[in-house]
Design goal:
elongated
Length: 187
Amino acid sequence: MKLKRLFWASIPFFFLISCSSNNGLIPGQQSAIQKNIYSEYMRIADEYFNLKRYDKALIYYKECLSFSEYHKAASYKLAKTYVMQKNYKEAIPLFKELLLDDSNNQSLIESLAYCYAMSSEKNKAEELYLNLINDYGNQSSYYENLIILYIQDKKREQSENLLTQLKEKFPDCSNIQKLESEIEKLE
């Protein structure tokens, strides 16, 4: 049903595309029609994302990259889509680009760290998680993700030390027992 609605909602959009042109525009200036087109691209991409049709969402988010007003939003959503597809290597450069403009954005840093961890660039992930803990330390997830990284690398001592910090800072964390259990399994 949603796909039918998406199809019928797209018809006026595609008509606009076929009727639009750059005649009379000053070079580098983007018209209101173009803005409407890219707005529709973004809406369609978001619908496909919500339907978990990530391959289709990618097409429309990529189109939005060329429109300056939507570039950052499209880059972020494109990176999220790659993460949902487990295509972390494609998401990494997008998160890095976004961090150039917003270097203190904890969510972007954590997303980049996660992508590094999932794409076997564990040293880079560790560095970013340590920076998050040292600079902010306000999220238990920073500690938890780094402990998991240490467990995967069989770094028992680092895991235990960080778990102690997690317990002190976030005693109500629901994952403490599970992490303790995983650390105990290490030789």
